[in-house]
Amino acid sequence: METTGIVPRQTAERMRDALERLATERDVWVSTAHPDHGPHQVPLWFSWDGQAVWMCTSATSVTARNVREEPRVRLALPDTFDVVLLQGEAECFADQEVPEGAAEAFADKFGWDPRREDGSFLYIRVAPRTVRAWRGEPELRGRVIMREGMWLE
């Protein structure tokens, strides 16, 4: 890995950069696990409401099954150099029970409203408890920028 020239960012800058990515990016890798079936990882579209990540998947998907059984999840933005990892517990909302603001924000961002589709969908909300962010090896120290749901500064 090329690390020459990387100047480690302070926590506040890492937080600002992570929040900007959460507000603007489209995809997040979702890692779930089931006690009998083991780990599962998929990319999903997401929206960020300033406090939590909102995703949506088929109510019958492996991801939906897993978060109902084991709500602890890990999320990763899709860049292996500019890493942002979130960890938290999933809250599940049936497509007809999701808070209106969350569903509208998701639909506005993607031009797709799962509530209007045939079949059942599950909205998944994850408020991070831990966030890690780093760019290359020089930033591994200090990579935790949220602990116990509180941003570090």
UniProtKB/TrEMBL annotation:
Q: Which residues form the Pyridoxamine 5'-phosphate oxidase N-terminal domain?
A: 20-134
Coiled coil (residue ranges): none
> Which keywords does this Swiss-Prot/TrEMBL entry list?
Oxidoreductase
Which InterPro entries does the UniProt record give? F420H2_bilvrd_red/Heme_oxyg, Pyridox_Oxase_N, Split_barrel_FMN-bd
| Protein name from the UniProt record | Pyridoxamine 5'-phosphate oxidase
Species annotation: Streptomyces incarnatus
